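Practice set, problem 2.
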Amino acid sequence: MASSSPGHIRNVEPIMLKERGSVVSVQYGRLDVIDGAFVLVDTYGVRTQIPVGGLACVMLETGTTITHEAVKLASRVGCLLMWVADGVGRVYASGAHGGARADRLLLQAKAAIDESARLQVVREMYRLRFQQEPPKNRSVQQLRGIEGSRVRRMYELLARQYRIPWNRRSYKVYDWNSADPVNRALSTATASLYGVCEAAILIAGYSPAIGYIHTGKPLSFVYDIADIFKFDTVVPAAFRTVARNSQSIERDTRIACRDLFRSEKILKRIVPVIDRVIHASGLQPPQVQPDQLTPAIPNAGKLSDGSRNN
């Protein structure tokens, strides 16, 4: 075992999807298949059954290990496995996309390729981000330019509010320490938000790579979705951390973001937004026959009475 702490299961947020129930987070235990059931075994040998067949995602947090049989069962019933930390602020890896289906991925790709549909998605992102209608008769590139100007202004206003000297948003991946404290805090905060957004995109069954404003990167859609939320969540948290004269900028920023994600139920908020922006394209998803969906295995990891069993 990775820790002497007892195993812990936390129902992260009741994200209701059409085909699946909620997301479960596990810590400090071993996930295994015993007598056909998907279970968490803690350091004392106590087993807790997890109804994996009805879950959208199981998140493996600190101190969790998983057996080959457990991975196989989760894959067969279409439950996404995700290795995370910092309250989902970091996503290290994920298994087969549990909720992913061809109709969702094809709709996402079609909306990115069709210029008219892509523009409608970008306009919806603008609407959600700034809470106002985007200017009419503007291309994606023009909207991106307007957005950039507004974002620079928002940074300036926050810096003034928290009385922090501000030059511009700047960071160097290969020269981290050369950045000033506020830019290091902002980079740390946005990286945490990227983790949550990637988790939400995978849970919702879409691809992190197919973006609309950002394109050509493995996490293009993650950046698109994160931009909708960051000025209401992690950017102010970063400024607050710096304003407190933190002596450990990166650590304190990650903790602030983790606590924020939990108190604001951010994962639950992001998933409906993902569906909303994709469907703003106006395109219809391809029809998928019931027998093309991932089949559930009867009684796989069925939780009979919610109790902990030895």
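Problem 2, part (b): a different protein.
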Amino acid sequence: MKFRLFAGCAALLASIFGTTAMAQMMRPPPFMGGVPGMNQVRALEMQRHQARTLLYREALEELRKNPKAADVPDCAPGQTPTDAAKPLCLAQAAPPIPTPATPVAAVPSAPTLPPPTRRRIAVLFGNNGYTKPIPALETPIFDVTAIASVLQARFGFETQIVKDAGKATMIETLNRIAADVTPEDSVLLFYAGHGYLMEDIKMGYWIPVDASVKTAKGWISNSDISKLLAAIRARQLILVSDSCYSGTLTHEQQVNDQAEVRPENVYANRSVLALSSGGDEPVSDEGKDGHSIFAWSLIKALEEVKGVTPGSRVWRKVHTTVTKDFEQKPQYGAVVSAGHAKGGEFLFLTELTPPKP
């Protein structure tokens, strides 16, 4: 698997310099002895990051002069963020969710009753079709389609797949979710596509399919992602991000795998979690069975969930699988800036009755 990284680097370099011949000149020679080791893979990934930095150099220079160049303004009072609002704006943060006056009914480890959530909603963005010179990706749409299928069949999620989304489509979709959900809902968001980290300011970005390498105005900053999460008024909320440098979303507060989780306590608070495919390192877009290694590992972990399982336990399984073969470390953390409360967790609950068609 790892030796396929050479092809990814060459394709990216080709997109930067405009010709395959130039990229071939910069392709590293094949390793003797077969599949490269971890140090060699790390060197290849760093080369890939340097190529991305060169590709995005004009947009990055804009961000250095104006760190808010990619940010979307908050909606003004009375401005509706839905219905493709023009100009584009972010829904305002939801007011704090009050703690229930009476404890939420406990969910046993082997549930016999439906979980205490009104709806389970999943929105999954899969971005393959980038415009040159940004290289197209192969796995995101395939990944989100498979993950949506597992979420619906095993967990009873209502799923929405958004393919090859531009910035406006992504913001408007999340604004609509914010306007629609209630505190009793459980919401899962998934992004698969290009990403980038500005190392000097430690700010991560999603790169939508209509983004430009010349300006950052079409990028989505982690700052805006946090604001969008804050606007979604669900007690149970998790963001899963499969992109380069997605781990910056998880740094606000670490969440450890707990031996025992009492759902009645979890549901009394707001939980906003982030699960990322890597930390501050670039992540591999190679994997298994046509999926990225992160998506493949997540699918396998979700297929093994039984009863009530905290997100930290799902992360632990994904982390173990990914780190066996790849130099990337999936991360899991709480997004305190979006309203995560102490003691919160995201709970995966297997569906007790067949999902609605």
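Answer key, part (b): The radius of gyration is 20 Å. The longest strand covers residues 120-126.
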